[in-house]
Amino acid sequence: MTAAPHHSRRPGGPDDLYRTPPPWDIGRPQGAFRALAESGAIQGRVLDAGCGTGEHVLMCAALGLDATGIDLASAALQRAEEKARERERTARFLRRDAREVAELAESFDTVLDCGLFHIFDAQDRAAYVAGLGTVLRPGGRYFLLCFSDRQPAGNWPWVHRVSQADITSAFADGWHIDSIEPATIDITTDPDGIRAWFAAMTRI
Predict the structure, then answer these.
(1) CA atoms within 13 A of residue 67's CA, in its CB half-sphere
(2) Crossing angle for the helix pair 55-62 and 31-39, nearest 10 degrees?
């Protein structure tokens, strides 16, 4: 897999990821999430944690759902808001740290995560999952698309390659793991994409 050179080293901050278009910013929803939307699995109030430039938030808004995206990259959020205006979609974008998502003090029915979970180390991952447990209502669903441990590190050394065991361990308390399936994250720099896991969890 090849990637833009600046993605071969750990970024200095969230906005560093968007100084040039990052490989995962493909201008459309990832296939796994598009299939979810088509199946009707995304329901109610939706939160996209680490929304980037907003493709999944805007996909949900197009379905008539109340959709919110959070991210720490101001440049990405600015572009997401521009897209919302261009497409005449009503959506909310907030600059928030997903590890502190509980501070939103809101309740959601669905949470989407495309490429956020795998950037966290064990400590940050625990804080993130704990926060998710406060904002996702009982019976609500969390959908995760993340780097798989089947993917060679290559030019992405700052991304944690996640195993199925990592996922089951992180969501051991207060969650039902509905499924963990092999998937692909589409990127602009490799037609084969990135090997990934697509997991679905229900908040107990």
Answers:
(1) 25
(2) 20
| Rounded CA separation 23/81 (Å) | 20
**Per-residue pLDDT tens for 8-49?**
445 567 888 888 889 999 999 999 999 999 999 999 999 999
One-letter amino acid of 204: I
Distance (Å, whole) CA 162 – CA 154: 15
Q: Which residue has the tokens 């833009």?
A: 4
Cα separation, 38 vs 34, whole angstroms: 6
Classify domain 5-203 by CATH architecture.
3-Layer(aba) Sandwich (3.40)
Domain boundaries, the chain: 5-203
Q: Residue 112 is which amino acid?
A: L
Is the pTM value of this prediction over 0.90? yes
Helical segments of the chain, H only: 31-39, 55-62, 74-87, 122-135, 164-170
